[in-house]
Design goal:
By secondary structure, the chain is α/β, with parallel strands linked by helices. It is built from eleven helices and 21 strands. The chain folds into three domains: 200 residues, FAD/NAD(P)-binding domain, CATH 3.50.50.60; 111 residues, FAD/NAD(P)-binding domain (3-Layer(bba) Sandwich), CATH 3.50.50; 99 residues, FAD/NAD-linked reductase, C-terminal dimerisation domain (Enolase-like, domain 1). The strands form five sheets. Strands 1, 2, 3, 4, 5, 6 and 16 form a seven-stranded mixed beta sheet that branches. α1 runs parallel beside α7 and α3 crosses α4. The chain is globular, with a radius of gyration of 24 Å.
């Protein structure tokens, strides 16, 4: 008889958990994955995928307006929130099915139940069944953080925003990170009046200041309101179902929807990790070493639950590294240097490597090259919105250590540029590359 029911039991079928399950099974391990909600996790079900589809939907407002300058006789168009919502949710269901089929084709057992850790090699399902495994992988992701104030229960998070019955006329977005700015752009594009409320005096902390400042300028010019240095005191629900949002030293804000986008916390509450002596940090994240192993030798963790880098591709890389190391006899570790990231705002921004501030602090002597321009499409459309590309260069070695940009298709352009930064190419390598004209991307090899 086998010593354990499974070689690997994975808790959470998000991006990291699915990759780890599939690859471990491909290496010959007997694998089960438990998912209490839907296969696909945050990214597929209530994150990156449906959000990006809403971004596309919202951008049609500007595209239809601009089309008239390009000769298209576009009539006044009405927007149907229910149609977009339902089509997006249908696509989510399709992708969930694809993820499920991938697991099943690799003979991974899918357990549609909540699982908690009962010991170093033991998992208890909500049904009461106990399962044993040689290794346990925690891949439960993160959960939206909600400010503690009276009436907070009247707000929603990114978990619920994709299921709204109707498009709210007035939206208050709490927070100023990437989720907040993305949904501010979405709701504004779809026709809502949007106010972003932030407890500090800047948006997108961690991104290059010059780029985030440009997004703030463009967002304000579009009509999105921003309230800075504000804290919530209480939220009151009115007789007509609307909300009144009270903040410090300010007039209360009326709203039809309050969206909390104030960060995400590792999803470890009630998971039973203490039963196996798994150590958590002050945010509730599972502490792991470079091989994703927790303080309990038989329990590992990948993805947002570790609070290292909360990005889907990182969770996937961690799941791959775990499977290859533990079951594939191909040990390797994730390189967390030069991870590109993007904000799918209106317009989008993207960056890789060090910001100007980080480079000056770490390297001392740096050179900054920028291009501040209007995209050709915006010129003909009579749209004053300007793109900004920025390159950060180590003055001593001429090596490009950071690229940051805001403008149409910035994330699509940055993915290729990130390879150059990761490879350690110099500014001269960019200068020696002939421009692809006419394109926005050519500005990267013309920076002065």
């Amino acid at each position: 008889m086998a010593e354990f029911d499974y070689d690997l039991f994975v808790i959470g079928a998000g991006s990291g958990g699915v990759r780890a399950s599939r690859v471990s099974a491909a290496h010959g391990a007997k694998v089960a994955v438990a998912e209490e909600y839907r296969v696909g996790g945050t990214c597929v079900i209530r994150g990156c995928v449906p959000k990006k589809l809403l971004v596309y939907g919202a951008h049609f407002a500007e595209d239809l307006m601009d089309a008239r300058r390009f000769g298209w006789n576009v009539p006044e168009c009405d927007f149907d929130w229910a149609a977009l919502r339902d089509n997006v949710l249908a696509e989510v269901t399709r992708i969930e099915g694809a993820y499920t089929n991938t697991l099943e084709s690799h003979k991974v057992d899918i357990v549609h139940d909540r699982a908690t850790v009962a010991g170093p090699h033991e998992v208890t399902l909500a049904s009461g069944k106990t399962v044993t495994a040689r290794y346990i992988l925690v891949a439960t992701g993160a959960w939206p953080a909600i400010p503690q104030c009276p009436g907070a229960e009247h707000g929603i998070t990114s978990n619920e925003v994709f299921h709204l019955d109707a498009l709210p006329k007035r939206v208050v977005v709490a927070g100023a990170g990437y989720i907040a700015n993305e949904f501010a752009g979405i709701f504004h594009g779809l026709g809502s009046h949007v106010t972003v409320v932030n407890r500090s005096d800047r948006i997108l902390r961690g991104y290059d200041t010059q780029i985030s400042d440009r997004l703030l300028q463009i967002s304000m010019a579009k009509g999105i309101n921003f309230v800075f240095n504000a804290t919530f005191e209480k939220i009151e629900k009115q007789a007509d179902g609307s909300l009144l949002v009270f903040m410090n030293d300010r007039e209360p804000l009326p709203a039809d929807c309050l969206l909390f986008a104030t960060g995400r916390l590792p999803n470890t509450a009630g998971l039973g990790l203490e039963n196996a002596g798994v150590e958590l940090d002050e945010s509730g994240a599972v502490k792991v070493d470079e091989d994703n192993r927790s303080s309990c030798d038989s329990i590992f963790a990948v993805g947002d639950v570790t609070n290292r880098v909360q990005l889907t591709p990182v969770a996937i890389r961690e799941g791959q590294a775990f499977a290859d190391t533990v079951f594939g006899n191909k040990p390797h570790r994730v390189d967390y240097g030069c991870i590109p990231s993007a904000v799918f705002s209106h317009p989008p921004l993207a960056g890789v490597g060090m910001t100007e501030t980080q480079a000056r602090q770490k390297l001392g002597s740096v050179k900054i090259y920028t291009s501040d321009f209007r995209a050709m499409k915006n010129v003909l459309a009579n749209r004053n919105e300007r793109a900004l590309y920025k390159m950060v260069v180590d003055a001593d070695t001429n090596r490009v250590v950071g690229i940051h940009m805001i403008g149409p298709d910035a994330p699509e352009i940055l993915q290729a540029a990130a390879i150059a930064v990761k490879a350690g190419l110099t500014k001269q390598a960019f200068d020696d590359t002939i421009a692809l004209h006419p394109s926005m991307a050519e500005e990267l090899v013309l920076l002065k």
